[in-house]
Specification:
This protein is an all-alpha fold. The protein has one domain: bsu32300-like (Four Helix Bundle (Hemerythrin (Met), subunit A)), CATH 1.20.120. 80% of the residues lie in helices and 0% in strands. It contains six helices and no strands. The protein has helices at residues 8-29, 33-38, 40-69, 76-85, 91-109, 116-143. Helix 1 (8-29) runs antiparallel to helix 3 (40-69), helix 3 crosses helix 4 and helix 4 (76-85) runs antiparallel to helix 5 (91-109). The model has no long low-confidence stretch (mean pLDDT 92).
Amino acid sequence: MLKHCIDPDYITKALAEVREAVDELESIVSRPIEEVLKARELRYAMRFCIILIVESLADVAQHVLTRCFSEAPSSYIDAFVKLERVGLLSSSVVKELVSLARLRNLIIHRYWVVDDARIYREARDRGVEIVREAMDLLRRALDD
């Protein structure tokens, strides 16, 4: 349905970035929380993975929305909400992606109040899974 309006190379590269960041985040949260919280490089890597995941998924969203639906999202959150509106993502996935985008904003704009333990727990408990689910939904929608 959407193959005719997207640049498949662009989408493939952006989703590969997401996949790589998710794999790295999953590797980090597979370690004990105490180890991650003690190691500055792991905490910063975890934060960067969140940023990269949100920005790359939002790039995909903006690309699809602009080219296929003549929609111009005003923010990362708006991009995810509009993907639900056009039927590409479920409301439950969008709710989680919106939460992830807010976390990204907190990391970027107010890094001194970032709770690394919270990031760790959310990524381990559902974050990695929801991003993989979003990628699968997008891939299926764009391949049809």
